[in-house]
Amino acid sequence: MVTETPVFAALLLLLVTLLAVNTSLTRMRLQIRLGDGGDERMTRAIRAHANAFEHVLPFVLLLFFYEQSGACATAIRWFGGLFLAARLGHAIGMLRGPFNLLRFGASLTAVLEVWLALSLLRNLL
């Protein structure tokens, strides 16, 4: 029975939704109807939202399958918690924070995606 993954799915979807709202508000504030209008702030908002979505969906699917494969709740919490922190750091770094926060968030995201995929394969084989 899946018990841990839905919590992280909900939290990560909230992050994606907040980034979508930020994109819409930025678009309205800058009066940009389509695209980025050549404005770096708009480009950052668009990419922060898209990048989060690009990584959140595959990760949640992997986390779900990992939990289904018999992983312990503690492992699910660690993977989910670290991934949430990585995505928050990445979003903040992309929108207005220091570049090192963006780089750290992106690196931790990649490491967790590979580690989770390999952990799932280990459980299945």
TrEMBL record:
Its main location: membrane. The keyword Membrane applies. SUPFAM superfamilies: MAPEG domain-like. The keyword Secreted does not apply. Keywords: Membrane, Transmembrane, Transmembrane helix. InterPro entries: MAPEG-like_dom_sf, Membr-assoc_MAPEG. The chain crosses the membrane at residues 101-121. It comes from the Bacteria. It is found in: Membrane. PANTHER family: GLUTATHIONE S-TRANSFERASE-RELATED, PTHR35814. This is MAPEG family protein. It comes from Nannocystis bainbridge.
